[in-house]
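Recall the central idea of this unit: under ordinary conditions, the amino acid sequence of a chain determines the structure it adopts. In this exercise we apply that idea directly, starting from the sequence alone.
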Amino acid sequence: MITAFTSFTLPKPITRDEARSIFLSTAPKYRGVPGLFRKIYVLSEDGGTVGGIYLWKTRAQAEAMYTDAWRVFVKEKYGTEPTVTYFDSPVVVDNVTEQILSDE
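Accordingly, the structure predicted from this sequence is:
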């Protein structure tokens, strides 16, 4: 499994309510994406940075999301360039399903 962390430093800070509204407007776009187990939207305490934490089945599926078109979408939506950082996630503890997931 792969965890991808996306981050966007905003031109001006936003409130939690503004972030929630924006996030709810884009969330449906991530439903049913092949290989995406979970996406968590994040907002820094000062409202100056937003992003997402994604859990993917494979790196190739993650990379298929972060295309030039996705980068253009982010730039238009948030007014800033995104960064994407990948992490290998060999084990995940899921307390909702009470499972420990491993990619082997």
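Residues 20 and 41 are 9 Å apart (CA to CA).
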